[in-house]
Amino acid sequence: MASPNVSSDPSRTGPQPAPKITVDLVDVLVGNEDDASLGASVSDISPRTCSAPTLAILSSDLEPQGTSPNSLHNLRPPSRSSWECSATQYSSTDGPSRTLSGATTFSNMSNLNASFSVSQCASGSHEAIFSVSVETLEKLLEQRTIADFDALGGLRGLANSLLTDCHSGIAADTDSVTSDGSLPNIASHTERRRVFGENHLLETKSKTFLYLLWLNFNDTVLLLLSAVAVVSLALGLYQTFGQPHKPGQPKVEWVDSVTILTAVLIVVVVGALNDYQKEKQFAKLNRKVCYKPWTTSTKTDSHEQKADRMVKAIRSGRSIEISIHEVMAGDILHVEPGDVLPADGVLVSGHNVCCDESTVTGESNPKRKTPAHLITDLLRPITPDDDPDPFMISGTKVLEGLGTYLATGVGLHSINGKLMMSITNEEPRPTPLQVKLTAVANQIATAGVSVAVFLFLALFIKFLWGVGWSQGLPSDGNLYVHTLLRITIVSITVVVIAVPEGLPLAVTLALAFTVTRMLKDKNLVRVLSACETMGGATSIFCDKTGTLTTNRMTVVGGLLGTKHQFGAKLLSRDTQLVYPHGLSELHAISTNKLISLLSEEVRYTLSQSIVINSTAFESEENGRPTFVGSRTESALLSFARERLGIGPVAVERTNAQITQVIPFDSSRKYMVSVVNLGGVFRMYMKGAPEVLLAKCSRIVKDATSDLDQTAPVNDYYDLLSQAMHHYSDQALRMIGLAYQDFPAYPPPGVGRIDDEPGQTIIDDALQDMIFLGIFCIQDPLRPGVEEAVAKCQYAGVTVRMVTGDNIGTATTIAKKCGILEPHSVVLEGPAFRMLSKTEMYQVIPRLRVLARSSPEDKRVLVMRAKELGETVAVTGDGTNDGPALRMADIGFSMGMSGSEIAREASSIILMEDEFSSIVKAIEWGRAVNDSVKKFLQFQLTVNITAVTLTCVSAIASEREEPILTPVQLLWVNLIMDTFAALALATDPPAPSVLDRKPQPKTAPLVTIEMWKMIIGQSVYQLAVVLALNFAGSKIIQDIGTEDSLKTLVFNTYVWMQFFNQYNNRRLDSNLNVFEGILTNWYFIGINVITIIGQISIISFGGNTLSAVRLSPIQWVISLVLGALSLMAGVIVRLIPNELLRSISAKLGSICLSEEEDDRF
């Protein structure tokens, strides 16, 4: 092997580039899984110089065993290629610095702290190879630890791994080079996108209407109905067209099955239309309130423009604007206040960069970012919790500061992207009501088939008995076939009657009606079944920031001068602030009143101190004016605009003659600005009150009088300390204001900054300041939260707070909301994680606040609560709430302030971000459950009576025919059921709907009150109808012909169902069945239609409907017997539940136990 040619210029001084080594590389030998070393050899020298792309390989990624995806194990270039190497130095903990040249064998490279580059020269194009994998970058941003960052070689190592430069970025195109011209960039844009992905997500395809039809058809009851209807249709067609009929007899045997199929079709279409409408509404909401950082679109309207916004990037050393869809791993991106980060990354440079990560972590306090190049061993804190944070998370918002950051994760590989994809393509889980309805439908189907089989056998045996066994089969074969067919049709009719075809329709109509009404209450239902699930909710797990609070810092009170405290709520009755030395009491007045009493001089000083001493600026968000920057400064500026009457902030600052500004610094805890007022220089100071008080010698005495009336601050120091302690106990953020006037600036005796005329060493000037007061800032509760929490608790729904904030702030907010109750448990996330599953089961019933929690804590808490049998609702607005929203039975998200991931994961969206809307959701949820139960109670009564009448009358009939003809059963079983479903499903929530506890998942669908009404009404109706059928001519004189008697029986039966609708408007023992009836115009209208339809059938039905006209006396008899159903309902409700409970216990019934019934 020949030695390489090394050339250098010894005459040059200063830093020199690494000497060039030109070799012909035959092969690169790297350690495999069985080798403990990594090696490279160069042989067969054939000197050749070429310009080639450079491959930067991070040495810290080279692991001894060669098992790392980032190691040289994957770097096997084609043999006999010419390579140009830059010999660079590397340092190892094992020994001194060495120079890499020629053939080198590497061992124990895990501690290596340098990078080297190899340039491949080839005539053809080759794939660029990055020395860091997508999985490694994902883990880096998920864990966000400095140790992982160090393992990748820090900022320089990470940049080299991504083939980028922290100053000049990636190449603007494949032929560009970096700013110094020394590192040509081999990674084409196509290659970067192939390896690290593109910055967009695949947009979820909207479900087609045909697919929604198929989903709605896949229901147990609908499938059973369809099967029965098909069999019935086949028999009906044969009977209609293949069998002889009497003169005038209608050929309508097929109609019953067709109407059943029509009912199925109505249910499927209505359900699909509902789903389609809510999908469109959700898409409209998404376009209105948010942008989708990754979704590609060709539309150019204002909403879609948000989806394809422009960001500033550095490429080839120049700042350019690119679409967020063009952002790639390795890009250097600019950030400024108001930006929403389009990708994950690491902060490269910047000053005072602060991000709002509440949507990801749940912590309301802004997160200050440290440039990655400043993170060294000397700056490293001792405790891991205080680690500097250089990590930029996609989807979070920059509040203040300017800087650049290195993009490491885009699209599907970013934190926001992964969270978005994790909540898509999940199949909806069946709700408790759906489970119970399926069980009831199966029981009814089993009972119906059993009765049909029994009836068939009974009629068949009767037929055989009638023709006589001794005589053998009848000689007339057609008679045998006709009789057998008639028996089969009657049996099938029993199944048709028994199956509650109106039940799916009732559920669909109830949900459709509820969705429409909830939308008027600003609740957008995305998952239809969530309506009824919310009615059984037993627990609500809510986030603090953005859910209970507004997520908008606001001035809620404070102290001005020595006499006034504003914001009366801050001064509780048991915490009075009393002056020492017998001075006058502090006046606690409302903010509006104090503002009206302020002197003009004090008002001006306060407003200018706030405006000049801030860096936040005005902007617009969702069509509303807002401030962008520090949340604290935004709160003060909002107060100044709304209370002190300032003009546009930019104009105010332009008009001010600012002499010197000292920005806020976390180490100093204050900001100072000096303004020339025309002969007088005024210094405004803003910061932590305790810091300002140390710089002040006097305090404004009375904010309602002249500004120059001051008093020694030491005389009021105890008062101010007591006030600050009181505010601190309420988790309020305090900002102090102070000022001082100078006749000249810089003032004499104050040190000056070299090379900056007019700029002073500010600490020297901060003496004898005059204290103005303290402003208390807080993320306030949303309006109506306290009342909504109280209503939830009254309704038996436990409200729990799960937040990423500290335990002090969380506890304070929980107390204000009324969440904390006597003997409640308050835990922090780390302590919760230490609990075993059994301990969690013991703690959760009393747990009310979980602070410092992670998204995983929230998800586990929801899962454990569900395992305890609770129906769990989760509210949230942040990205971090996505997993818990999916895990919950019902997920609520905020429509305006919520993140897109939260909305995608939720089942109901609170469109105006009002927590009080949840109470409306509970009311409507219980109304849906009640509507379904009302109809089920009505349907079971009709089914029991109709099946019993059919069986008894068919067996008793000489011709094996039921008392009610198929067409009459059509009217009773379909039209009446359908109308009743619409009538009973549209009742709005009753005022007393929150007076009862939520229904547990284990409770049976039919309660003991329902069983009372079903059995009582069935007994009454069967007694009346059977009496009229078998003894009507004896009971009622001049009843008329047999057809008149049958029509009277049919008419009486229909009116009993009509009046029984009113009985079913209540599910409790209350006797007032007409409560709220005038508020439901659907019910009234349907009753009118039913009356008109029944009168028309009796008057004009004729032979087609097997009805004849009735006399006035017969009409009176029918209506009176029907109206007596109301009296029967009163009697049933007066029967004690304990009596039926004891009977059901003896019979082994499935009715409620005493404990279960008491919960309603």
From TrEMBL:
Residues 963-1135 form the Cation-transporting P-type ATPase C-terminal domain. InterPro entries: ATPase_P-typ_cation-transptr_C, ATPase_P-typ_cation-transptr_N, ATPase_P-typ_cyto_dom_N, ATPase_P-typ_P_site, ATPase_P-typ_TM_dom_sf, ATPase_P-typ_transduc_dom_A_sf, ATPase_P-type_domA, HAD-like_sf. Residues 308-421 form the P-type ATPase A domain. It is found in: Membrane; Vacuole membrane. Keywords: ATP-binding, Calcium, Calcium transport, Ion transport, Magnesium, Membrane, Metal-binding, Nucleotide-binding, Translocase, Transmembrane, Transmembrane helix, Transport, Vacuole. One of its GO terms (cellular component) is vacuolar membrane. PANTHER family: CALCIUM-TRANSPORTING ATPASE (PTHR24093:SF369), CATION TRANSPORTING ATPASE (PTHR24093). Belongs to the cation transport ATPase (P-type) (TC 3.A.3) family. This is Calcium-transporting ATPase.
